[in-house]
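Quick check before the chapter quiz. The format below is the same one you will see on the exam, so make sure you can read both the input and the output lines.
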Amino acid sequence: MTAPSLAERLDGLLFFPVTAFGPDGALDLDAFRAHVRAGVEAGAAAVFACCGTGEFHALSPAEFGACVAAAVEESAGRVPVVAGAGYGTALALEYAGIAERAGADGLLAMPPYLVVPDQEGLLRHYTALAAGTGLDVIVYQRDNAVFTPATVVELAKVGNIIGLKDGYGDLDLMQRIISAVRTELPGDGFLYFNGLPTAEMTGLAYRGLGVTLYSSAVFAFSPEIALAFHRALTTGDDATVDRLVDGFYRPLVDLRNQGRGYAVSLVKAAVRLRGTEVGEVRPPLSEPSPAHVKELAELIEHGLALLGEH
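Here is the expected output.
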């Protein structure tokens, strides 16, 4: 009996842990392990280590490898571990090799660094990455990596490119991508993920497209709220979805929009507020203001209180 593929195992709430640093700014693997372990035990369906929320951009290759290996050990086969990979093609391949040797189950391929490629260049980049690794690859659409439906069809033809994570948010484009892949590759099983910051805010819209997988930054600091929302979204309990959007997620997005880099630094501050000392963000990101951290603490308490309302 063959083991289930990564695509078959990605069913549920996806956990993007923060990367823990000590007071001196050095990697704190013990705190990272505790954070990952708590997320898996809380009910995460997968661990996406060293991705955007995990400050991939700020990690050395050695730190990256240590974190991925730690996530694999803490997950212990209970859930898959997907690692970030990015920059140019050569470095993306290097990070892919590190992740594979560390035991990861797949890669989240982030946009190329600095340049704005055309569709041919994007296709060459991601197919080269896929050809150079034995891991399954999820391509992350955002910023300078936005694909036409025809390009996604070509990516979906590559055996180990298993899905597209959308952080761009153009629902018309996503509908055309899904339709094109469905038409050209019927029954392929290509996966789609809502990868927008605070993806819960657009959960109903993506569900309308048939996209139910999403990354949850909130799960990193409040699995109780994230799991309640996920359960409501997947069971059609739209009243609970609306209550959590109105009372927690929309105010959280409003707060997140108050500062650059808050999609990461605010999450890390929230993890600390919930009792896990994961340190501060590394430059070039900066910490949220004390006033915003206070507002965040009050918002988390309100979100938890909403779980008791029916």
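If your answer matched, good. The two ends are 45 Å apart (CA to CA).
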